[in-house]
Amino acid sequence: MPGRCPNYRLVKIHRSYTVGGIASLLDLHKNTVRHWIKNGLLTIDRKRPTLVCGRDLITFLKARRAGKRQMCPIGYLYCFRCRSPRFPAGSMAEYIPVTEKIGNLMAICPDCDCLMYRCVSVAKLSEFLVILDITFPQALQRLTEISQPTVNSDLRGDARP
């Protein structure tokens, strides 16, 4: 979604931008850029057209992004519905491996009963085990180990020649 978190890497530090230039570069509306100027984005001078130095724009966008960021302490997962870090309900979570080195912790938010996720490395998983009761998925059974095979299988116990 354009506009929520504009990419400051598109901005050149040695270039001056107009309000329309910033809006087209970051795929925003001109009024959004004017609102930023009212809220502290530095301009070169008070004359028209309004010019913004690229270095000042990058600094403003980085500060805006850092101001909204919330770090989760160990044992907490981020709830997107509540928009804040929460401790899982019942202090229980489930580990879902993604690769050999990382996986996701999945838990239920105690306030809104929504699923919460957190990406965690296997090396740091021991820190979470101290605080949370984490369950790990079991490997699926092999078809030959199942006592009651499905109806459409050929595993009846008698061998056909």
List the main descriptive attributes of the protein structure presented here.
4 helices; 161 residues; 2 domains; two-stranded antiparallel ribbon; elongated; Arc Repressor Mutant, subunit A; four-stranded mixed sheet; alpha+beta; 8 strands
Ranges where pLDDT stays below 50 over 5 or more residues in a row are none
Strand percentage lies at 15-25%
Cα-atom radius of gyration: 26 Å
What level of helicity do the residues show? 10-25%
On the 0-100 scale, what is the average pLDDT? 84
Q: State the order of secondary-structure elements, H for helix, E for strand.
A: EHHEHEEEEEHE
Number of H/I helices:
4
* Count of strand segments: 8
Strand order of the largest sheet: 7-6-5-8
Which architecture of the largest domain would the CATH scheme give at its second level?
Answer: Orthogonal Bundle
The CATH topology of the largest domain turns out to be: Arc Repressor Mutant, subunit A
- Structural category is alpha+beta
- Tally of domains: 2
> First CA to last CA: what distance?
62 Å
Main sheet makeup: 4 strands, mixed
Shape: elongated
Characterization of the model:
This protein is of the alpha+beta class and about 160 residues long. It has 2 domains: about 60 residues, Arc Repressor Mutant, subunit A; about 60 residues, no CATH class. It is built from 4 helices and 8 strands, in the order βααβαβββββαβ. The strands form 3 sheets. Strands 7-6-5-8 form a 4-stranded mixed beta sheet, covered by helices on one side. A two-stranded antiparallel ribbon has the order 1-2. Helix 1 crosses helix 2. The longest helix is centred in the middle third of the chain and has 15 residues. The chain is elongated. The mean pLDDT is about 85.
